[in-house]
From TrEMBL:
Residues covered by region (Disordered): 104-176
Source organism (scientific name): Kribbella orskensis
Biased composition (Polar residues): 119-131
Keywords assigned by UniProt, alphabetized: Signal
Signal peptide: 1-21
Extent of Low complexity compositional bias: 154-163
Protein name: Lipoprotein
Keyword Signal tagged: yes
């Protein structure tokens, strides 16, 4: 009889005829004790086949199956509960696997699990109910409070970027690393005991701990153009930034900025690293050409002073100086007008055309606009250098390479510069073309009035 019941169960149906005196009370009559014992044994065997091989669980040594009955007595509520068993990622007290049962008809009622009836795993004990067995075994008083199983260990030295965990409660921080191809801003730091949720939860590898850094990324905007300032194809610039996590003497590569698009902006992300428990500090390090910057993932503070002008306030100033249309005529045939505006100046460690400033230096990038109109049929022209000269805090600095018709000119100054005096002097050299035999004068230079401006940086 037991063999037949087990085979039927495997097909999804349990049917056990009843005999004996007392047993389980059902709406179809009493299922005798001997019948309930045989039925429960078969259900319990099936349940163990289902759960014994499951990973990441805590199965009580007293785990077994019970009839769910009313709060008092042995009146069936039509369910069997097996447990307690706590699976990884389940909430407290969700330690019972339930399956519906029905009563068979006849003079001596039996019990069955309906064909293809699904088990409901990790459920709370039904309200206002008791758990009953015909052998009078009872659950432990603390059965519903079974502890969760330990989370499996993550890969040693885990280093990854994922979506922010909604359950994480990080300590707020706000420091950042600014690079030409993007800015990374820390939002919060945490040392969670586990990561992930549900059945995917993980604990640190042996001897390690987790550090979670919440961050976002944004483009680094060129204040003179209001566009991302990094162009990987521009001459003189560096390649994209290399990001690593520094753990002691170990450098772990990590993808932080969106690849291939300096204009990309992301929502909050999580940098998760697993590090030795006794490591004194962990750094997020950015290497861009010769410039290395780091943020501490322990304190949330920047630990380097390179590219310092990226972090100064008041590095953009409006110059608002202009030279209106000014004539520059010579002789009978050469006529011209020239206008110039010095618009803005910015102090920066990096220039899209010239790359990083040398150590201890910074760039003053000057935005300008100019127009030149001249008699072009008989003459060829060129500008005479230097055009833009300057002093930084009263000391002369090298003139800016470039001509008056450039949109942006760049000067090299000490990195701690506060006041830059700019002087723009446009000198136009002209010469008659070979066929212009009657042109008068044959050649000459026109010097337009100088234009000065003061850039003040805090």
């Amino acid at each position: 009889m037991m063999m037949r019941a087990g085979l039927v169960l495997a097909a999804g149906l349990v049917l056990v005829a009843g005999c004996g005196a007392s047993g389980l009370q059902t709406g179809s009559g009493t299922v005798e004790k001997k019948t309930t014992e045989a039925f429960l044994t078969t259900v319990e065997s099936d349940w163990h086949q289902r759960v014994d091989t499951e990973p990441n669980k805590n199965l009580s040594p007293d785990g077994r199956c019970y009839f769910v009955t009313g709060a008092d007595g042995n009146q069936s509520l039509g369910t069997v509960a097996c447990g307690p068993l706590r699976r990884l990622g389940t909430a407290e007290r969700q330690v019972w696997d339930l399956v519906r049962i029905t009563t068979t008809g006849g003079d001596e009622p039996g019990l069955e699990v309906p064909e293809n009836e699904p088990w409901k795993q990790s459920q709370l004990r039904p309200d206002s109910s008791s758990l009953w067995r015909p052998d009078d075994k009872v659950t432990d008083d603390n059965a519903d409070s079974l502890a969760a199983p330990p989370a499996p260990a993550a890969t040693p030295s885990l280093t990854t970027v994922t979506a922010k965990s909604e359950t994480l409660e990080p300590k707020p921080v706000s420091d950042k690393l600014v690079l030409p191809d993007g800015t990374v801003t820390l939002k919060g730091l945490a040392t969670p005991e586990t990561i992930g949720s549900g059945a995917e939860v993980k604990a640190p590898a042996s001897g390690e701990k987790f550090i979670a850094a919440i961050f976002s990324t944004s483009p680094t905007i060129d204040p003179l153009t209001d566009r991302p300032g990094f162009d990987a194809n521009a001459a003189g610039t560096t390649t994209a930034t290399k990001w690593t996590v520094t753990v002691g003497g170990e450098q772990r590569p990590v993808d932080v900025l969106p690849r291939g698009d300096a204009s990309a902006m992301t929502g909050d992300q999580m940098l998760l690293v697993s590090v030795p428990k006794d490591v004194p500090d962990v750094l997020l390090t950015a290497t861009s050409g010769p410039v290395v910057q780091s943020l501490s993932l322990t304190t949330g503070k920047r630990t380097t002073d390179t590219a310092a002008t990226y972090y100064r306030s008041g590095t953009l100033t409006d110059l608002s100086k202009s030279l209106p249309n000014t004539p520059g005529n010579q002789g009978r045939d050469f006529t011209s007008t020239y206008s110039l505006a010095l618009q803005k100046a910015v102090l920066a460690p990096w220039d899209p055309a010239r790359g990083w400033a040398p150590q201890g230096k910074a760039w003053v990038r000057v935005q300008l606009a100019s127009t030149l109109k001249y008699e072009s049929i008989q003459y060829q022209i060129d500008w005479t250098a230097p055009f833009l000269t300057a002093t930084a805090d009263g000391r002369p600095v090298p003139a800016a390479p470039g001509k008056p018709d450039f949109n942006i000119l760049t000067l090299e100054v000490p990195a701690d510069t506060k006041v830059v005096q700019l002087t723009a002097t446009a000198r136009l050299k002209f010469a008659a073309k070979g066929y212009a035999l009657s042109a008068t004068p044959k050649s000459g230079t026109v010097t337009y009035p100088p234009l000065t401006a003061t850039a003040i940086f805090r």
